[in-house]
Amino acid sequence: MSSSKATSKCFLCSLAKWARKKSVWLYHAPAGGLCNGCDIEIAAAITPRYDVERFGILLAPSPRHADVILIAGQMTKHSRERLLRVYQQVPEPKAVVAIGSCAISGNVFTTDNYPVAGTVDQIIPVDVYVPGCPPKPEAIILGIIKAIEKLEKRTAGT
Ligand code: SF4
What we know:
- By secondary structure, the protein is of the alpha/beta class.
- About 45% of the residues lie in helices and about 20% in strands.
- It is globular.
- The structure holds iron/sulfur cluster.
């Protein structure tokens, strides 16, 4: 590789790292079964009351544009394939945040329940767990910050 190509690749790597640090995009993925309590708290975290957008954190319209996947709710057999597809569509480096007791442990929905596929981390790798039923927006924001720290470490390793 010529030195100018190497320099420009390095420049693009630094630019990508800088852009990701300044603007992390979230994809709110479906788990299937949930009461919407966690979804409402996620909505509160990203809308003007808590307003994470002022830090450059915003919802992505497609998993292909996202850095972090937020997932809440009980993992159902019906949604398992869809979640796997979403996970594969998010480019590397990426991080996954499981939000709420349903996503983390199944909550009151036991795994011998016929529509239940298990916990989210049995389907895709989870980086950050945000417990609660539902967790408060502050806890969700803290989870997103932890995911950003993981992304920074992964980006530094590339
Ligand atoms: S963790 Fe609680 S609030 Fe969240 S989806 Fe499950 S039952 Fe609803």
